[in-house]
Design goal:
The protein is built from two helices and twelve strands; from the N terminus they run αββββββββββββα. The protein has about 180 residues and is an alpha+beta fold. The protein has a single domain, classed as Immunoglobulin-like. A hairpin with a 7-residue loop joins β3 (about 40-45) and β4 (about 50-55).
């Protein structure tokens, strides 16, 4: 029996490498992945690899909850947050740490945003270019006035490890 269980444990080890999330009680979150969606605009963000962040018309729904994401251009992953008491947190610094991009060597990206208020907020990442699709631990951290509101690691894995997610997004893309 152990010889059958051992391969499963070895396979599961890289999938749990992302680690535990920290979430301040002032913020409630859902984290995971969803199929990439159209954005309606952008905002300058000079400390990001692209120099901008994309803006969503509506906050996308997390389709796959958890911390494991396949590296593929049809995937987006991140955190949907809400302030249960409606408090607004201005000038929240979002820091995304990740393995070095293949060409540029970028390992960290930063931008300012607002969290809380009456609705949901989203901070997410889409794989727009092949150099960004690097496996390893990616971590979002939201810092407000020197305090961490959330710190959530994700494990980005090769797309071949999660073909069902990729297929679901490709099928949706082909029909929309």
């Amino acid at each position: 029996m152990l010889r059958y269980l051992l391969p499963l444990l070895v396979l599961a080890a890289p999938l749990s490498a992302a680690g535990a999330a920290f979430i301040d009680p002032r913020i409630s979150v859902a984290h995971g992945a969803f199929c990439a969606v159209e954005t309606f605009g952008e905002s300058p963000a000079p400390e990001t690899a692209a120099g901008k962040i994309d803006l969503y018309d509506d906050v996308p729904r997390i389709r796959w909850h958890g911390q494991i994401v396949p590296a593929h251009g049809v995937m987006t992953f991140g955190i949907v947050s809400k302030s249960p008491d409606g408090a607004v947190y201005n000038d929240v610094e979002i820091i995304l740490r990740h393995p070095p991009f293949r060409e540029s060597g970028v390992t960290e990206q930063r931008y300012l945003t607002v969290l809380g208020g009456a609705g949901n907020s989203i901070n997410a990442y889409s794989f727009d270019f092949p150099e960004e699709m690097v496996p390893g631990t990616w971590e979002f951290e939201a810092i407000w006035q020197g305090e961490t509101l959330y710190k959530i690691p994700f494990e980005v894995v090769p797309a071949s490890m999660m073909p069902d997610m990729i297929s679901a997004c490709l099928d949706r893309t082909l029909t929309s």
